[in-house]
Amino acid sequence: MTRRSSAGPLTPEDSNIPDGAFGPSPSQTVGPYFHQGLVHGFQGYERTAGTVLVDPFSVEAQGVPGERIRLTGHVLDADGEVIPDALIEVWQADASGRYPTDPDAAFSGFARTHTLTADARYEVHTIKPGAAGPDAAPRLLLWVGLRGLLTHLYTVVYFSDEDNSRDAVLRDVPEARRPTLIAQRLDAPGGVTYTFDLRLQGEGETVFFTP
Amino acid sequence: MTTSDPPNDVHPPHLYPPYASSVKRAPHELLMPLPTALRDHGGPVFSPSRLRPDDHDATRNARVNGEPLGERILVRGRLLDAAGRPVRGALIETWQANAAGRYVHGRDQHDAPLDPNFVGTARMLTDEHGEYELISIRPGAYPWGNHPNAWRPAHIHFSVFGTNFTERLVSQMYFPGDPLLAHDPIYQGIPDPQGQQRLISRFDLNLTEPGWALGYRFDIVLGGQHATPFEDPDHDD
């Protein structure tokens, strides 16, 4: 049996959303099993989906300018326990501070990973973003969804070796909490690594943003 | 809750004690509004070259030696922005349990069979009308540990990218008439009854393919830039 060819535009009568109830669809948790749909090659099931979007670089990305970095860390709950079922997405500008808009660009500015790893640590391989303007320090936007979060969270990640004092976003964050947004640089043998833990609740709670 | 409530009330609060996992994972501090400097950037766009022809068809994309078990379904809907305009070329990803209520995941220990011909993942880009089509198997309900005799209603997870960061959405599609919805804290955590309603698909006999698959409509509306930023009032209810 083959499927029906695509019909024309849908009419309002076709909708599941009743008349007068139009509005945003609510968020729901990603749950603990998102790897199946959102992570490439999970449990050996490479066949089941096209190229999944875990890597910000295309195969042609050798010449993409910028410092190669790793961003890594744990996601922690109120008790300081590591969370092994967090989904992490990174959205960022390229090394010149521009957000990619071409779907075939060698550098997409988007990466996705998770914490179902040996030590529940996420790790993103990317390039260090450039500053997006005179009142902005280099930064990236980090999205987190997990079991227990019905609505996802955002945070903004800065770099410990940059002058962050000029950043207008960071200036609006209470001074005592700003350190929760700074990734710490380590010049490790494997390359430049920035460590950035997210603490969802309690002492040292990460500053989170809502759209 | 009335229709005059701010659009952000559509989304569940972070701390919702009936959903036990939220208690130690929800932030306690006030959330800050996402700065305009970051809201205005476009989200990622994805090339059609990243998808394969069967990616939207979970009844085919994982076949080993035959048809997957269960009730075949066809889900069609539109992706719209807050003004009702179609969102074109947007990536939609789905994942779900099989007909028996079991996920292909090492941590799913539900004593129900796995299906060798079904993984339950699909992805698609919306077309020029903002439409998508998913072919799959109706997922089964499954037990979980939230409270005694807790069962998740049948659902399909949807991950959607809109046109900018503020439109990123992960949600779930439910089925009409499911008696488990009334007992499910994940669904009941949505404060707005109209918002709850939007996550229930509509059975459509006209969409149903005779002799082959039952049809369901499921439109998705993204919040995005029309929502007013403010500090989350629900964070410590």
UniProtKB/TrEMBL annotation, chain A:
One of its GO terms (molecular function) is protocatechuate 3,4-dioxygenase activity. Residues 1-29 are annotated as: Disordered. It holds the Pfam family Dioxygenase_C. Transmembrane segments: none annotated. Gene3D superfamilies: Aromatic compound dioxygenase (2.60.130.10). Its EC number is 1.13.11.3. Keywords: Dioxygenase, Oxidoreductase. It comes from the Bacteria. Residues 71-99 form the Intradiol ring-cleavage dioxygenases domain. PANTHER family: DIOXYGENASE, PUTATIVE (AFU_ORTHOLOGUE AFUA_2G02910)-RELATED (PTHR33711), PROTOCATECHUATE 3,4-DIOXYGENASE ALPHA CHAIN (PTHR33711:SF9). Belongs to the intradiol ring-cleavage dioxygenase family. This is Protocatechuate 3,4-dioxygenase subunit alpha.
TrEMBL record, chain B:
GO terms for biological process: 3,4-dihydroxybenzoate catabolic process. Belongs to the intradiol ring-cleavage dioxygenase family. It is an enzyme of class 1 (oxidoreductase). The keyword Oxidoreductase applies. Keywords: Dioxygenase, Oxidoreductase, Plasmid. Its EC number is 1.13.11.3. InterPro entries: Intradiol_dOase_C, Intradiol_dOase_core, Intradiol_RC_Dioxygenase, PCDO_beta_N, Protocat_dOase_b. Residues 43-224 form the Intradiol ring-cleavage dioxygenases domain. It comes from the Bacteria. Residues 6-36 form the Protocatechuate 3,4-dioxygenase beta subunit N-terminal domain. The gene is pcaH. This is Protocatechuate 3,4-dioxygenase subunit beta. GO terms for molecular function: ferric iron binding; protocatechuate 3,4-dioxygenase activity. Residues 1-20 are annotated as: Disordered. Pfam families: Dioxygenase_C, PCDO_beta_N. The keyword Oxidoreductase applies.
